[in-house]
């Protein structure tokens, strides 16, 4: 079967989620909305 870690799609999802979270934080800083609440 091989090494599961090589082809497991969850590893790609985790890397993508971390990248997206970093991008959202960057966008909030650029829009000066970091630390504020919505509503």
Approximate shape:
rod-shaped
Could you tell me the mean pLDDT? Answer: 87
The tally of structural domains comes to 1
Given the structure, what is the number of helices? 2
Distance between the termini: 51 Å
Strand content: under 5%
Number of strands: 0
Oligomer: single chain
Which residues sit in consecutive blocks of at least 5 with pLDDT less than 50?
none
Main sheet properties: none
Given the helix and strand composition, which structural class is it? Answer: mainly alpha
Helix content: 55-70%
Description:
This protein is mainly alpha-helical and 39 residues long. The protein has one domain (1-39). 67% of the residues lie in helices and 0% in strands. It is built from two helices and no strands. The protein has helices spanning 4-7, 9-30. The longest helix is centred in the middle third of the chain and has 22 residues, at 9-30. The chain is rod-shaped, with a radius of gyration of 16 Å. It starts with a helix and ends in a 9-residue tail after the last helix. 0% of the residues are buried. The mean pLDDT is 87.
């Amino acid at each position: 079967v091989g090494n599961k870690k090589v082809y497991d799609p969850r590893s790609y999802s985790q890397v993508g989620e971390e990248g997206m979270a970093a991008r959202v934080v960057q966008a909030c800083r650029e829009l000066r909305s970091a630390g504020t609440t919505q509503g």
